[in-house]
């Protein structure tokens, strides 16, 4: 397929935080930025030079318009934006520090996106000539209306021959309208061609424990035989999906993380480098950076699955060094990390 246009669909959010690792209960001043999983993917792709359309529903207010302007500044096409409703979804983020875990507080009820209904978005027009539609579990978690609109998009994309990319993105606190999240996400997976999730989300989805990733540095040895059996079983449950990507993170401390990833593709299981990150700045959006990296690398390196995986992990690792939801790392910067792994004795050892 010559057309490389990618469409992402989800809720644009406004994120509020306090400065200097203060708790949400401290200070009188919030800083705000725009983000949201599928918007993060769109910005990453646009930063890498890809053609990407982002689809959501926003209130026609200065706050909604400002979000659109921010995305357009980043090179994302918002030509199919739908306007309506009264408010934008928000969330409040308190970063981790020392032994204190990060905290997220959502405020998304009755948002413009939550009131979406099937038939409101002209999917046949939007998806005409598109290569990939990217969604996540969050697109169906907000409300029954949003879930119905998501399945409408998936069914039309499938009918039109558009590949479907999916991120599990399980957020327990968002599923409030009575649906069984595992059942809904399982139905979404039945329509997907490639998917991503972190190790915890995979365990939740499959209700099966996996070998632990406890790397303290890049010398950790993976239990690949056990992982292969685990992925083979997953593929038997959802046979349509041919590319299963799992990101793995060990939080040595709030600022020191190690990352790696696995890709099961058509029966082969590949491992990415283990990347050591001694100074994490902001871990929000790491999975989105990974998925964007994979979509980009799949087009640039269509016949090299190991490169696709290594590129994806390098993009995700670099997101940890960028404040905010968006990964603003360039192709040159990502390839520098990939090449570090090539230029040292072991492919599976690199530090950024």
Assign a percent range to the helix content: 25-40%
Q: Averaged pLDDT, please?
A: 93
Q: What shape does the CA trace take?
A: globular
Structural class: alpha/beta
Distance between the termini: 35 Å
Gyration radius, to the nearest Å? 19 Å
Low-confidence runs of at least 5 consecutive residues: 344-348
> What is the string of helix and strand elements?
EEEHEEHEEEHEHEHEHHEEEEHHHE
**Hey, roughly how much beta strand do the residues contain?**
15-25%
| Number of helices, where a helix is a run of at least 4 consecutive DSSP H or I residues | 10
Q: How many β strands by DSSP?
A: 16
Largest sheet: 10 strands, mixed
Describe this structure in words.
- Helix content is 34%, strand content 22%.
- With 352 residues, the chain is of the alpha/beta class.
- The relative contact order is 0.12.
Keywords, separated by commas or semicolons:
alpha/beta, globular, 10 helices, ten-stranded mixed sheet, 352 residues
Quick overview of this protein structure:
It contains 10 helices and 16 strands.
SSE layout:
Blueprint: E1 6-9, E2 13-17, E3 31-35, H1 37-47, E4 52-55, E5 57-58, H2 62-73, E6 82-83, E7 89-94, E8 103-107, H3 123-127, E9 132-136, H4 144-160, E10 163-167, H5 181-189, E11 194-198, H6 199-206, H7 224-237, E12 243-251, E13 257-265, E14 268-271, E15 274-277, H8 286-300, H9 305-319, H10 331-342, E16 349-351
Parallel strand pairs: 1-4, 1-9, 2-7, 5-6, 9-10, 10-11, 11-12, 15-16
Antiparallel strand pairs: 2-3, 7-8, 12-13, 13-14, 13-15
């Amino acid at each position: 397929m010559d057309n490389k246009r990618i469409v992402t669909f989800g809720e644009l959010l406004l994120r509020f935080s306090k400065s200097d690792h203060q708790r949400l209960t401290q200070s009188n001043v919030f800083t705000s930025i725009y983000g949201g999983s599928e918007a993060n993917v769109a910005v990453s792709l646009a930063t890498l030079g890809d053609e990407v359309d982002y689809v959501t529903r926003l209130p026609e207010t200065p706050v909604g318009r400002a979000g659109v302007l921010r995305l357009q500044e980043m090179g994302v096409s918002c030509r199919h934006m739908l306007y309506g409703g009264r408010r934008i979804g928000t969330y409040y983020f308190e970063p981790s520090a020392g032994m204190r875990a990060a905290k997220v507080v959502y405020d998304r009820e009755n948002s413009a996106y939550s009131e979406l209904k099937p038939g409101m978005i002209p999917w046949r027009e939007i998806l005409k000539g598109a290569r990939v539609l990217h969604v996540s579990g969050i697109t169906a978690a907000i409300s029954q209306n949003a879930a119905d609109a998501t399945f409408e998009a998936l069914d039309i994309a499938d009918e039109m021959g558009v590949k479907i990319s999916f991120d599990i993105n399980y957020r327990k606190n968002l599923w409030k309208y009575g649906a069984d999240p595992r059942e809904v996400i399982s139905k979404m997976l039945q329509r997907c061609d490639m998917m991503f999730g972190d190790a915890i989300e995979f365990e939740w989805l499959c209700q099966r424990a996996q070998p632990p990733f406890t790397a303290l540095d890049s010398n950790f040895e993976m239990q690949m035989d056990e992982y292969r059996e685990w992925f083979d079983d997953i593929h038997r449950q959802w046979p349509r999906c041919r590319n299963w990507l799992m990101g793995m993170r060990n939080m040595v401390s709030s600022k020191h993380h190690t990352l790696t990833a696995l890709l099961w593709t058509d029966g082969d299981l590949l491992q990415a480098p283990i990347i050591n990150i001694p100074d994490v700045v902001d871990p929000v959006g790491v999975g989105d950076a990974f998925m964007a990296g994979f979509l980009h690398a799949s087009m640039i390196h269509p016949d090299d699955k190991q490169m696709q995986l290594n590129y994806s992990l390098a993009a995700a690792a670099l997101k940890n060094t960028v404040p905010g939801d968006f990964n603003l790392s360039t192709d040159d910067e990502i390839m520098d990390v990939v090449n570090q792994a090539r230029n040292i004795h072991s492919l599976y050892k690199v530090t950024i």
